[in-house]
Predict the structure.
Amino acid sequence: MNKITEEIDAIRGKWGNKLLILGHHYQRDSVLAHADEIGDSLELARKAAEHSEAERIVFCGVRFMAESADILTSREQRVFMPDIGAGCPMARMADMPAMRKAWAVLGGADAGWLPVVYVNSSANVKACCGEFGGSCCTSSNATRVFEWVFSQGKRVFCLPDEHLGVNTAHDIGIADEQIIIYDPSKPFGGVHPETLKSARVVVWKGFCLVHTAFTTQQIAQVRSVIPQAKIIVHPEAPKSVVRLSDAHGSTSQIRKYVESSPDGSVIFVGTELNFVQRLAKNQAGRVMVKALSQSVCANMSKTNEQNLLSVLSDWPDANVVNIAKSVAEMAHKSLDAMLKL
Ligand code: SF4
């Protein structure tokens, strides 16, 4: 055991259950070795709320995840990040002023729109969603949230990930011509009022660098070399990649797919590399798990044992994630709408 590991263990021992360390699946093994709970972003935010005895929560992930934990926990619980600069580039592709502008361009609630905001978004965007009566979604439950919108006779305005929006719309049988891309860098989002009339889904032109690194060429290469291999990718991958894969799903759904595959299967997985390598290690000897491409989230990688130890030792105010009460209340509303479904 190295010295840093020993020091972290000693601090954890001292704090007992008043300290909770949360680790996202995309973190490196040396960080997850210290986590009390490991999961996806929403699972971890809910765990934080369940552990009401924890006075201090250290979130090893990216900023939007720590924000959700702060929103779902009591005001007395303080949420810290080992590296406060670990943000999600996709979450930053949508902000509240741009969302309000888009809402006006689309015609808002009067034109039958309801926002569906991916949890990979800022607290401000979630708050705006709550204000407009919409719901958050995750990559596991996006289909259910879209169906909830359609069951009310409404239309989906999905942000910030284009690919999750398009793939979900596809999964539930929405025709291509009824799905429109809203590009915030263009006047009026590049949306023509005529095409908007018959649209059922509008998706924000945002993307994840990690999941758009998977390509149809990589799939063709796997199929030509190992024809019996199965390929599963995350729905943040482009539609063309999802269509050529055998399956697609969230992190938990990918794990279940691998775990329920017959012995001797060869499975190529298109998601973040740290998670794929852990899956491969856990399944070694039963199923062969390979990365479709070596795609690493640079922001997730900003957390390491060294900055985890620093935050546990000094508890710097600069590393606290504290969402303003008014924003947290509205953001909570959009998370609640999803949790009720
Ligand atoms: S993997 Fe993509 S969506 Fe997830 S934190 Fe990294 S950049 Fe953001």
Remarks:
- The domain at 91-207 is CATH 3.40.50.10800 (Rossmann fold).
- Residues 22 and 59 are 5 Å apart (CA to CA).
- The chain has three domains: 3-87+300-323, 91-207, 211-291.
